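Many introductory courses stop at the sequence. We go one step further.
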Amino acid sequence: MGPAAALRRRYICENIGQTGQVAANAFIPLGMADGNGGIFKSDATKQGYYDPYAINDDYDTVIERARTLLKAAGYQFGEDGKLSAETPIQLEYLTNTTSGHIKIAESIQQDLEALGIKLSIQQQDWNVFLEERKAGNFDFAREGWIADFNDPINMLEMWTTVSGNNDCQFGR
């Protein structure tokens, strides 16, 4: 969770996406049915298993929260507030070559650099990108998902070991 806390999700939606996306802090989107005639989650900051700190417009607070979480995990920071040479983090982000996705990757790269995390962006043509992602050949990758029907299982089944959509290889 540490580095993910540094990502400016609302900034990405409003300034890069610019198509009305809503910043997410959980796998199940707002407004999805609960299977009992109600709504699973209708408020991003008051309901469910969400991370209430995941959507925060106070950048200094976001960075400090990420730094605190990384320190709790044993990472060390220098006086400049960035990771020390003793505990570096280097990650690779896998994305396809669409310009919007590259801009999002660059925004993530900039956010992580504020903590001293080095992020390289691996751009691949669509078919290669899909195969590499399906094989789990990434540290983290661009993902997107739309539910086939209005039920939380659409968003949750991809996180099971046997799911064909388990690109991140949970349980494998």
